From TrEMBL:
Keywords: Cell outer membrane, Membrane. InterPro entries: Beta-barrel_TonB_sf, CarboxyPept-like_regulatory, Plug_dom_sf. It is found in: Cell outer membrane. It comes from Emticicia aquatica. Pfam families: CarbopepD_reg_2. Gene3D superfamilies: Carboxypeptidase-like, regulatory domain, TonB-dependent receptor, beta-barrel domain, TonB-dependent receptor, plug domain. SUPFAM superfamilies: Carboxypeptidase regulatory domain-like (SSF49464), Porins (SSF56935). This is TonB-dependent receptor. Its main location: membrane.
Length: 781
């Protein structure tokens, strides 16, 4: 198998290199346009007279009165643009990929500065988060397509950064600094939305529904613009999250010309279109549809281990700028997915207990919204978002009779979550040293939940408002110091719980290339619905845990960043999370809600548990310069919890260490052809499992844990190498990319979990995904 695979890679490499080499006599390179707008980072006013230079070409332009700029007839390739203006930090926008099939349209945000410091290395489409000075990563669509092992999913790309690990190969669950994936919040255009992932039961022990993860993101990477991923001590505009926030923004379509993209690969078939809506305005559209490759195979009767997996999604963004009443966008996304497992109708072929089950899972998700942005005078920016999102999951498991294969319902799970959100905020730039941001996010949330098995049941419904006003004052008391002071308030009207949360961050410029930062925040999060809806055994109409308070955490982060030459930096972050108000079971001293993902309980809970997460992260990143890039990081951490017995134990995701290395190289084989390769190595400390009482499990013919030995079994370390090779070819009017992405190229067996198998009568170790080759072809025109 390995020999055949490496032969494929070898011949593709030779073919790509030879194909590119054969056309070296071409003397006319394809050209394209780089254009966009430069705005103030605080009030988003267009900036006139800003100087922009493409470093490798020395081509230079200045922005016009509306902040617009244009570089015409630029040869395709990789570029860096230096942006400078009096009173603002000089920035270098890195990793710009210019292809013949699409114009490059940038929105560049400049930060005001009191005294001119060394240039700041940033990525295109940077965010404007007030108060974010630590624990934030900017994620670009170009990286999603270039890095190996991403499945074109921003959540999987996020695991290449320090402090972040994947919960399981089959899912995009993000374990941030030892926290459960349940601590993650997803946002779209600045408001909370429901779980935006297909197959939310993927990669779990019980095959049940999760809150914040799934097999792959519903929103195609074709639509994603600037994304911010926060991992701790969030600014005051963020609440109702303990571990991390994935803040997704949509890009606008090209408002000057129509462009199209088609992509075929193992993930699915993507088709996208964008362009102007009218010749008389700058309005634009962007639409994408995707259908899974596994779904196409399922239509032809092909299954994977007896499972039929399918998904499809549609997403869009319409942009309507006006001259007098601001800018409007209308956006939406929707997805359908299913996973059907048919048990074998021949008992002689039953190997594990799952072979004797039929399992049906369905998922429906949708979101739609409207945004408005308007400058009120020279110093004030007003933003408003209205959005509605909904998610419905259904799962049924039937055990098959060994005699006539009659089906008997053994598990039934369903959930319905709706959110209607309204967000509005004002950004006021008082002067160069002071700015103020005030806003409120109000969400009407409806939850309906059912989870039942032979001995447990959680069922109920709830609705209420989640009210989150906030403010942030950014000021510079001295030239090298930037301070953010903020306050966030969280109120859930369903059970009348509330929390006042102070936020503080400081950034001090030590030298022209060194800075030190500190951030603190008190953060809270609403409990998962399966905890609120635990059923009383006597009175089934009484929700015994409906009055649970938020889980809360004090976040402290200390950061040092050293900007190096040639577009690289080295960053160190030291963090501590003091978690309290954690739900625990009164009669089970080892239980803690910090270890839950898809599990539930019908026991009475109280907010008496605690947790401690602390660690240190080291990151070196070399942005793509002269055909080479590197992202290397190491995290040493400890994540523990304390139950009712007062004993500190390892939490479920306390892997102790995370090591990531991503390196890539591109060769310009001719004027219009580029060959690239990239490699990612992941090494994680093994997670913890509950100890299984094998003797009791055999005697009772069901899985029984050793109640006193919670999370004492450490899994072996996790190791996975991913590899990607691609060839880009550009003509005058279109560009094409052929890529081979191989996850776990070494086919290393990583442990997923252990369970007691009723059929085999022993404890079985389940493994994660092995080698998966993903061949794709992308055409932009």
């Amino acid at each position: 198998m390995f020999k055949s695979l490496f032969r494929i890679i070898f011949f593709i490499s030779i073919y790509c290199g030879g194909f590119a080499q054969s056309t070296k006599n071409e003397i006319t390179p394809a050209v394209q346009t780089i254009r966009g707008k430069v705005i103030d980072n605080i009030n988003e006013k267009p900036l006139a007279g800003v100087s922009l230079v493409i470093l490798s070409t020395q081509k230079g332009v200045q922005t016009d009165a509306e902040g617009n700029f244009l570089f015409g007839q630029v040869a395709i390739g990789r570029y860096q643009i230096q942006v400078s203006s009096v009173g603002y930090e000089t920035q270098k926008v890195s990793e710009i990929l210019l292809e013949s099939g699409k114009e490059m349209i940038l929105e560049i945000r400049l930060k005001p500065t009191i005294n001119q410091l060394a240039e700041a290395v940033v990525k295109a489409q940077s965010s404007n988060l007030s108060g974010a000075v630590t624990s934030i990563q900017s994620i670009t669509t170009e990286q999603i397509f270039r890095f190996p092992g991403t499945y074109l999913d921003p959540a999987r790309l996020a695991t290449a950064y320090a402090g972040v690990a994947n919960s399981n190969d089959q899912a995009n669950g993000m374990v941030v600094r030892g926290n459960s994936p349940n601590g993650i919040q997803w946002r779209l255009e600045g408001v909370e939305i429901v779980n935006p992932n297909h197959l939310s039961n993927a990669g779990t022990f019980s095959d049940r529904i999760t809150q914040n993860s799934g097999g792959v993101n519903i929103l195609s990477a074709q639509l994603l613009g600037n994304m911010s991923f926060l991992t701790g001590a969030f600014p005051s505009e963020y609440g109702n999250a303990l571990a991390g926030v994935m803040d997704m923004r949509l890009r606008n379509g090209n408002n000057k010309k129509h462009e199209f993209t088609a992509q075929v690969g193992l993930i699915g078939i993507d088709v996208a279109a964008e362009g102007p809506l009218s010749k008389n305005s700058n309005a634009s559209y962007l639409v994408n549809y995707r259908y899974s490759f596994t779904g196409l195979l399922g239509l032809m009767g092909v299954t994977f281990g007896g499972e039929s997996i399918t998904f499809q999604d549609l997403s869009f963004n319409f942009n309507f700028p006006t001259k007098k009443v601001g800018n409007f966008t209308f956006f939406g996304m929707g997805g359908l997915s299913s996973n059907t497992f048919a048990g074998l109708r021949d008992t002689t072929q039953w190997v594990v207990q799952k072979d004797g089950f039929d399992i049906n899972y369905k998922n429906k998700m949708g979101a739609i919204g409207l945004t408005h942005r308007m400058n009120l005078g020279a110093k004030l920016l007003w933003k408003t978002v209205v959005a509605a999102s909904g998610l419905k999951n259904e799962r049924e498991a039937f055990i098959l009779s060994k005699t006539n294969f009659q089906r008997y319902l053994s598990q039934a799970d369903s959930s319905l979550k709706n959110k209607i959100s309204f967000s509005t905020n004002l950004n006021y730039k008082i002067n160069t040293q002071n700015s103020l941001k005030i806003g409120v996010l109000v969400t009407h949330q409806y939850d309906e939940f059912l989870a039942s098995s032979s001995d447990l049941k959680s069922v109920g419904h709830a609705q209420g408002l989640i009210v989150q006003p906030y403010f942030n004052w950014q000021f510079s008391p001295i030239p090298k110091l930037t301070t953010n002071v903020g306050l966030h308030y969280l109120n859930y009207t369903f059970n009348k719980t509330k929390s006042f949360e102070p936020r503080l961050s400081l950034n001090y410029q030590l030298t022209k290339n060194q800075s030190i930062s500190f951030a603190y925040g008190l953060h809270s999060q609403i409990q998962p619905p399966q905890l609120y809806f635990a059923q009383d055994n006597i009175n089934s109409n009484f929700l015994r845990n409906a009055l649970l308070d938020f889980t809360k955490s004090h976040h402290y982060v200390l950061s040092h960043q050293f900007a190096l030459k040639r577009g690289s930096y080295f960053k160190t972050e030291l963090y501590y999370q003091k978690i309290f108000n954690v739900p625990v079971i009164l009669f089970n001293p080892t239980f803690s809600a910090l270890n839950l993902v898809e599990d539930f309980t019908n026991e009475p809970l109280q907010n008496l548990g605690k947790g401690d997460n602390y660690g240190i992260e080291f990151t070196y990143q070399q942005f793509l310069t002269k055909g080479f890039y590197t992202l290397a990081n190491a995290t040493l951490y400890n994540a523990t919890y304390t139950g009712l017995d007062g004993i500190k134990r390892n939490s479920r995701y306390n892997g102790k260490y995370i090591f990531n290395l991503t390196i890539g190289k591109e060769w310009e084989r001719s004027k219009n052809r580029t060959l690239g390769t990239s490699l990612r190595l992941v090494w994680l400390g093994g997670y913890y499992e509950r100890a299984i009482n094998e003797e009791a499990s055999i005697a009772n013919k069901r899985l029984i844990y050793k109640s006193a030995d919670a999370y004492t079994v450490k899994q072996p370390d996790y190791f996975r190498p991913d590899f990607r090779i691609y060839l880009k070819k550009s003509k005058d009017k279109y560009s094409r990319t052929l890529a081979l992405d191989i996850q776990n190229i070494a086919s290393y067996q990583n442990v997923s979990y252990s369970y007691y198998d009723i059929l085999q009568g022993k404890v079985i170790r389940q493994y994660q995904l092995g080698l998966i080759p993903i061949l794709s072809y992308r055409w932009e025109f």
